[in-house]
Every structure is written in C-alpha cells, then in structure tokens.
C-alpha cells in the first residue's frame, strides 16, 4: 500500500465513521427527547402557576437586560419586561455606554433619578457611571444602570453585581417574554432536592411575522420570509429535540443568551460572564458546571420545552452570516478555554460526552463538511468519483434529514402546536425540503468564515440590525 | 445542530472511485448498496407516515375541540342548574339535581363523562357554599366518582394523580383511606396530589403523612401545602413539634416554614434547638423562623452562633436583627462593618440605622467611614433614608 492509498483510506473510512456516528446521535437525540417532553407536559397539566405568583416563598429573581443603542425601542421593550407576571421581581436594565439617546429616553419615560448606590464588585467590570431608580412607585421594580461600554458580557456582569435577588435571568432587551415565562422558568429551581439547579433555560421562538401589541405577543404566525421560516424549523429541531434530550442526560452546555436563568451565587463563584469571548452564554454554563464538578457538588442544568421567549431572527443573509460566524467563534473559544475537559473522566458526562459531542459534531462538522466539499470537487474534476455510490449515500442522508425535520414538526404539532393553520405546517415541511440546498450550504460557509476570523484574531460581535417586529401599537 | 452536516461527509466517503468502492467492501458491494437503498425507502416511508400522522392528528384535534365545545354548551346549562338549585331535604342536605331524561344516556360515553368531570371540577374550584355542595351532589348523582376510582388503579402516574385530584376537589372525603397510601408513592406528583387531598379533607390533621414521610418534600410541594394550610384556622395547628425532630430534613424545613409563616410562638424553644442541627440550611431557616416568634434573648441566641457559621447564615442573622434586636446589638453590628463580606457590611449598616437613633452619627464616625466600601455604603443608606 502506498502512502496515498493509506491517506485516502483514512479519509474515507474516518469520514464514514464520523457520519454514521452523527446519524446515530441524531436518532438517539430524537428518540430520547420524547420521554423528557412527554413527562414535562404531563407534569405541567397539574401545575397551578398562580400558586407561585401569589406566594411569598416564590424565589426572588432579578432580570438583567443589557442594552446598547436600543433607543428606538428601549422604552417599549422595558415596558414589556415590566409587565411580566412575577411577584418577587427586579428588572435591571444596563445601558452599556450607548451612543444614542437610550438613557435619556429611559430617564424621561420612567421618571428616573440618579441615586447613590454601593456596588459590590464581586465580578470586575468597566466603570459604572450611575444607578437610576424611578421616583414613581409604579416602577419600583426598575433599576437602570449606566456604564462605560464594555460589551454584552461586561454589562451582564454589572447587572449580576447589582442584583439583589437569589436568581438572575439574563435576557436580550428586545426579546418578548411570555407573561408567565418567569413562573415557568423558576419552577425547576424549586423541584430538585438531591442536586442544586444552577441554570435553567426555555425555548426561544422566532417572532418574525407575529403580531405584537403593547409589548406583548398576541398572534403567532409562521414567518413569511424564507430565512426566518427556515430558522423556525431549525429552532424547533434544536430546542424541542436537541436540548430536551441533553437536559434529560443532564449534559447541557448551552443556555441561550437570549433568555436563561441562573443561580446568582454560583455565577459569582464561577467568576461571572467572560467578556473576552463572543460565546459568553455557553462559556458561563461550562464554567459553572466545572465549578460544581471541581467542588464535588451535585448539580443540574435544566431545560423546559415551553415557548417562553420570542425573538427576531435575521432575515437577510448578511446578518445571518454574521450571527453564525459569531456562534462559530464563540463555540471555539469556549471549547478552547476549557480543553481540559476533553475526554477527561474526572468530569464525568461533561468531559466524556457533552464536550466531545460539541467539539466533534457542533464545532468540527462544518469544517469536515467544507473539506469534504473541496475533496469532492477535486475528485469529480479528476473523474475519481463513484457516482452510483455517491448518489445513493447522498439520497440516504437527505432522506434521513427530511425524516428528522418532519419528526421535529410532529413533536411541535403534538406538544405546543404554535402554528395551528394547516397551511403553516405545510409551509414548514416544504421549507425543510429546501434546507439542504439553500440554507445549509450558507450556514457552513458562515462557520468557515468564523474560523477564518478566528485565525485572523477577529473578535468583534458584529452588528445585528433588526427589522423590528410587526407591532400593532395601542 | 448541524443536521445536514452528514451528507457531504458521506459524499466524501465516496470520493475516489476505488476508495468509494473500498468503502463498501465490508459487505459485498451490491449488498451494501441494496441495504442503503432499502434504508432510503424506509426513511421515505417513515417520513410519509409522519406526514399522514401530523395531518390526521391536526384533524383529530380539531374534531375533539369541536366536540368538546359542543358538549360544553350542553353541560354548562346543567351545571348552571345545579349551581342555582335551592331545594333541600328535611335534614338540610341537597337533594338530587333535576337533569334532563336523555342526559343519563350521554353519560354512558366515557369521553362525555370526562368532559362533564372537567367542567364540574372547574366550577367547583370557583364556588363555595350551597352551590359547591350541589356540584358535589351532581358529581355523585352521575357516579363520576367511579371514574376517579378507576383512575387511581391505572398504572400511569399522571392518570392516578388526576383521579386523586378529582376526588380531592370534589371534597369526597369518604375516599380518604383510598388516597392515603399514595402520600408515599414513588412519583412526586402523585404524592403531592395525595398530600394536598388529605389537607382538603381533614385540614391540618391531614398533615399526618409527615410523621412517616420517607421521600423528600421539595420546595414546590412545600409552597403548595403552605398555601392550602394558610386557609385553615390557626388554632388547629397542633402537633408540629415532632416534625422538627424528623430524620427527613425536608420535613424539618417544612415545619420551620409552618412555624415562621403562622407565628407559632409556643415552639420557640424547639426552633432554637434547630440552631444546632447538622444541616446548615435548617440552621439558617431556624433563624428566619425565630425572627417571627422572637422573645427576649432571641437576638443574643442567634448572635451566639454567628462566628461558627457561613456568610449566608450570618447575613440571615443580620437581616433578622432589625426585627428582633435592640440597641444592645449595635456594638456587635459595628464590628460587622469590618466583616470581609460587603453584603454583610451593607446589611449591618442598615440595621444600625434602624436600631439606634444616633446610628448615622456612629456610622460616620466609624473607623473606615471615609474609605471604600464603607463610604459608598453610608452614602447609599443615607439616600435610602432620605427617600
């Protein structure tokens, strides 16, 4: 055997093994998530959330919402967050050195006054310029912090330092929360007796084309535009199948930065958000887990399948590309920072399954795929492709992909059934047919660009211009 | 998740003609291709089945919703009649609710009965007095308790729990003995429903399951039980003390909350003993409970444990002092201004201000009053005082 034969053999068999493992992981995730979701729904049918809404024993929660140049919508977004149904609540809006008039708009709308406030700098942050509270008792839950610009992670850390409650909920200020989102999110923290719940997440849904009235989502619609619609399908797969399965295994590494709740004490002990990565949400969860593992403390990271938070998905390839580029960099930075976990038995499931899965099948997948594409083009030019094998394997994997997407849609219909119109379900299924040919190649390319940026040491967040929700103001 | 990551990897697997062929040599080439083709058809078939299922399920759900709405309209009328039914028998009990002749036939269908049960449950939650009694009477008149009892025997936990819930909401205390064993069921939801049912039936006495509870009582369950108990007359709250000695820590925690929220002053001594408990959370909760049932000497008692405990316990003590302390504790609090934990410093400063009319002067003349962090702490509490 020549070295070329050995190399090609290694590539072909290696990649085949990789693909087969990936397919089996998806099968496992799909099947394993069913039990968790079903169990949750049965349990939930007995829950009276009013109990928590009125109980003095309900856990205290501080919502932290960082805002940067959110002027056009900030007043309305804060009003929406203030209307969330929860008793023991504090809302901390952190103005991260906005260049626009966000702060003055807030001061005017909510009758804010600068107050002397001692900040216990348990997590180091950029300088806080002032803390504001409303003079109007109706807004007594609101705290507005003005600080020097330092990025989202730094703004969140300021919020954590200032928060006075036991749990913190970090949220993007432009997200629309369901009215009972906090009641549902807080419950897992109260249910565990054998392990400490350190973080909890809920399903993020896409709000493009939905109707928003007075800061509340009143009508759910499937996005009209192709890109948000395909991301709807992607989110359903990721949240209803992926995260539920990982939650059941207690192997979750990511609670979405758009909406997640954390045990404040553990966040502080773990060191807070890392301002030097663009994947601060995943990095924090990994670090909190490492802290608990290192101290031998039993813990859980939970996830609930309820749609709790609605966000606007990128509707243009340019913005979507930036977002996925950032996600790739964030994943790499987190995995690189915590590489000691890689197949480290000391960290149990975290080291032996969660971390390797993320490395091989979340981070490496687009790279392997891109290289595959290059080799494929090269060898097809050279006439070295066995076309019958190729076509059969391609058909196999596309058929599997469609099956997985259809299964996700089935889970959605049988559980939360957000898209009630038959037409919407058909459109969702038709969209899945186009995914491997239009959406997926673009996502792979964006991830490759993310890796190129990593090599070039580019660390910017990338602007995320929003189109704005279809608001029907009253 | 990179769902479509696999196709191109597999494309690679078929790259060089020879190696693509080699790839499938584990099996004879044609057999491997055949297996893949069979799998493709299986996937497509499964996909088709899922699609059919999705649309059938949607259609089925629409039919169920329509059917339920139709039955609601019919049954709401009967429930309304029951609510406003005013006839009583000679012994003061409700007599049968008059129901349409053909209605009994409808109740032969299981689906219809469940719709009726759900409506009655909903109505029962919203009414009390005679109307509530009448709803119970209608429930019994239609023998719907039999459905609930069948549910208790079902092997699925959520059906069992639903059966318990139905009997509990309908106040069918005759079935208390049937429900009691479920208070130690392995499933937490079944346990919780059974425990709540016992309180519904027997009031405070229903908490007797705590005497031998081996499963933990989580915070959510405790919150639900405390809410139920809050509706009961406080004079019935007897027999809490033994729970403070329970080997089940969650029972001790629950008993402490019970004492705290219901101000059981007579249990001060037993709660004070909990300050020595091996579980730090129980020691901390004992401080919170003592703050609600304090006597002379309570402040000194909790302070005596201060230096032996965690920062969390210490903070609980200082937050309790404005309520239970006097100016005697001010010197202790002044010492805490040098505590390494800033949260404790802030709480101590606030407490000094509340316990001592000259508190602000004392704070401003303290040793580190012009240094960080005390300087900022004093500014903050000055602001709070002014507001």
Features:
heterodimer, A: 474 residues, alpha/beta, ten-stranded mixed beta sheet, 14 helices, 52% helix, 16% strand, globular, B: 387 residues, mainly alpha, extended
Describe this structure in words.
The complex is a heterodimer of chains A (474) and B (387). With 474 residues, chain A is of the alpha/beta class. Chain A has 14 helices and 13 strands. Chain A has helices at 3-44, 50-54, 71-82, 102-109, 152-162, 181-191, 226-249, 264-270, 280-294, 317-337, 348-381, 387-414, 422-434, 439-455, and strands at 61-67, 89-96, 112-115, 128-134, 142-147, 167-171, 176-177, 196-206, 211-213, 216-219, 259-263, 299-311, 470-471. In chain A, helix 8 crosses helix 9 and helix 9 (280-294) packs parallel to helix 10 (317-337). Chain B is an all-alpha fold and 387 residues long. Chain B has helices at 5-13, 17-23, 29-83, 103-106, 110-126, 129-141, 145-153, 157-169, 176-179, 188-202, 219-229, 249-262, 268-273, 280-292, 298-304, 311-324, 330-336, 342-355, 359-364, 374-386. In chain B, helix 7 (145-153) runs antiparallel to helix 8 (157-169), helix 8 (157-169) packs parallel to helix 10 (188-202) and helix 12 packs parallel to helix 14. Chain B is extended, with a radius of gyration of 33 Å. Chain B starts with a helix and ends with a helix. Mean pLDDT of chain B is 89; it is low at 7-27. At the A-B interface, helix 1, helix 2, helix 6, helix 7 and helix 11 of A face helix 1, helix 2, helix 3, helix 8 and helix 10 of B.
């Amino acid at each position: 055997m020549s070295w070329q034969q050995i190399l090609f053999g290694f590539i072909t068999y290696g990649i085949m093994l990789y693909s087969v493992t990936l397919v089996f992981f998806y099968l496992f995730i799909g099947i394993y998530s069913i039990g968790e979701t079903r169990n949750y729904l049965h349990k939930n049918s007995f829950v009276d959330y009013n109990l928590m809404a009125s109980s003095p024993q309900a856990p205290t929660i501080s919502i932290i919402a960082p805002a940067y140049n959110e002027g056009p919508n900030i007043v309305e977004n804060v009003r929406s967050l203030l209307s969330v149904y929860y008793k023991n609540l504090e809302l901390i809006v952190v103005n991260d050195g906005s260049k626009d008039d966000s702060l003055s708009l807030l001061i005017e709308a909510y009758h804010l006054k600068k107050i002397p406030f001692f900040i216990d700098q348990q997590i180091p942050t950029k300088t806080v310029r002032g803390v504001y509270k409303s003079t109007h008792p109706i807004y007594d839950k609101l705290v507005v912090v003005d600080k020097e610009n330092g990025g989202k992670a730094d703004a969140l850390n300021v919020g954590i330092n200032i928060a006075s409650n036991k749990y913190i909920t970090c949220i993007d200020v432009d997200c629309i929360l369901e009215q009972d989102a906090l009641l549902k999110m807080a419950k897992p923290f109260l249910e565990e007796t054998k392990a400490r719940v350190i973080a909890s997440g809920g399903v993020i849904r896409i709000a493009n084309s939905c109707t928003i009235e007075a800061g509340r989502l009143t009508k759910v619609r499937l996005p009209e535009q192709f890109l948000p619609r395909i991301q709807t399908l992607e989110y359903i797969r990721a949240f209803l199948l992926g995260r539920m399965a990982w939650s059941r295994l207690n192997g979750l590494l990511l609670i979405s930065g758009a909406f997640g709740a954390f045990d404040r004490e553990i966040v502080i002990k773990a060191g807070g958000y890392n301002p030097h990565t663009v994947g601060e949400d995943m990095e924090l969860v990994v670090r909190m887990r490492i802290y608990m593992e290192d101290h031998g403390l039993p813990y859980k990271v939970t996830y609930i399948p309820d749609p709790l938070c609605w966000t606007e998905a990128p509707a243009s390839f340019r913005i979507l590309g930036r977002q996925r580029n950032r996600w790739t960099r964030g994943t790499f930075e987190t995995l690189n920072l915590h590489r000691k976990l890689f197949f480290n038995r000391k960290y149990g499931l975290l080291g032996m399954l969660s971390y390797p899965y993320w490395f091989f099948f979340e981070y490496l997948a687009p790279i392997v795929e891109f290289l595959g594409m290059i080799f494929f083009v090269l060898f097809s030019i050279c006439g070295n492709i066995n076309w019958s094998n190729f076509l059969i394997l391609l058909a196999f994997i596309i058929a599997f992909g469609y099956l997985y997407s259809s299964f996700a849609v089935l889970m959605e219909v049988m559980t939360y059934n957000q898209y009630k119109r038959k037409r919407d379900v058909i459109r969702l299924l038709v969209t899945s047919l186009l995914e491997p040919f239009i959406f997926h190649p673009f996502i792979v390319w964006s991830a490759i660009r993310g890796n190129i940026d990593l090599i070039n040491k580019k660390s910017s967040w990338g602007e995320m211009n929003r189109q704005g929700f279809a608001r029907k103001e009253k | 998740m990179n769902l479509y990551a696999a196709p191109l990897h597999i494309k690679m697997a078929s790259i060089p003609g020879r190696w693509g062929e080699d790839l499938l040599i584990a099996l004879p080439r044609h057999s491997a291709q055949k297996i893949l083709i069979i799998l493709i058809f299986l996937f497509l078939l499964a996909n088709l089945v899922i699609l059919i299922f999705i649309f059938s399920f949607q259609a089925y759900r629409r039919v169920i919703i329509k059917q339920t709405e139709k039955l609601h309209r019919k049954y709401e009328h009967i429930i309304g009649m029951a609510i406003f039914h005013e006839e009583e028998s000679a012994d003061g009990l409700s007599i049968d609710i008059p129901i349409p002749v053909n209605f009994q036939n409808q109740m032969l269908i299981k689906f219809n009965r469940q719709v009726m049960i759900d409506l009655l449950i909903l109505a029962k939650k919203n009414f009390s007095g005679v109307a509530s009694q009448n709803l119970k009477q209608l429930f019994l008149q239609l023998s719907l308790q039999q459905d609930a009892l069948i549910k208790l025997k079902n092997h699925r936990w959520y059906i069992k729990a639903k059966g318990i819930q139905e009997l509990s909401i309908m106040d069918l205390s005759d079935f208390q003995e049937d429900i009691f064993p479920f208070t130690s069921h392995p499933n937490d939801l079944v346990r919780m429903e059974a425990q709540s049912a016992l309180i519904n039936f027997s009031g405070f006495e229903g908490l007797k399951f705590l005497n031998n509870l081996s499963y933990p009582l989580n915070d959510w369950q405790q919150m639900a039980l405390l809410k139920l108990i809050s509706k009961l007359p406080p004079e019935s709250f007897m027999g809490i003390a033994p729970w403070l000695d329970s080997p089940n820590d969650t029972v001790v925690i629950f008993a402490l909350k019970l004492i705290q929220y219901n101000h059981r002053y007579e249990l001060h001594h037993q709660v004070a003993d909990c300050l020595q408990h091996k579980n730090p959370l129980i020691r901390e909760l004992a401080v919170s409970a003592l703050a609600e049932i304090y006597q002379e000497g309570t402040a000194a008692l909790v302070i005596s444990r201060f230096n032996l405990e965690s920062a969390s316990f210490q903070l609980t003590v200082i937050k309790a002092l404005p309520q239970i302390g006097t100016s005697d504790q001010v010197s202790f609090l002044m010492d805490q201004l040098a505590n390494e934990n800033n949260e404790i410093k802030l709480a101590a400063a606030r407490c000094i201000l509340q316990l001592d009319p000259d508190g602000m002067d004392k704070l401003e003349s303290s040793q580190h009053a012009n240094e960080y962090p005390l300087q900022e702490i004093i500014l903050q509490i000055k602001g709070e005082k002014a507001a």
